[in-house]
Specification:
The protein has 92 residues and is an alpha+beta fold. Helices cover 30% and strands 26% of the residues. A hairpin with a 5-residue loop joins strand 2 and strand 3.
Length: 92
């Protein structure tokens, strides 16, 4: 079972702006019984077929490998753990 608290410990509170400069936010929703964590811009984008932008959430910039491992042990969503590991590796 996914722990929301463990998963949120990996995700940056500030989800930044989209490519058009609109403020993005975090969407946590249940889809077919599974939690999904997404970065969303509520503005319609022609680039996305006049739909909203939805993508992976921004991971905390200062995240450490130990924090990622701890969140994984506490039940963080496996997709977000992998995304956090990828972000962490890119910064090394």
């Amino acid at each position: 079972m996914t722990s929301i608290d463990a998963t949120m410990s990996l995700i940056d509170e500030d989800q930044g702006v989209c490519m058009d400069g609109h403020e993005c936010g975090l969407d946590v929703s249940a889809v077919t019984g599974e939690l999904r964590f997404s970065r969303v811009c509520p503005e319609l984008h022609p680039f996305f077929g006049d739909d909203v932008y939805v993508g992976p959430p921004l991971i905390r910039w200062d995240i450490t490998k130990a924090e990622i491992d701890d969140a994984a042990r506490r039940g963080a969503h496996p997709d977000i753990v992998e995304w956090a590991l990828s972000s962490w590796r890119d910064r090394q």
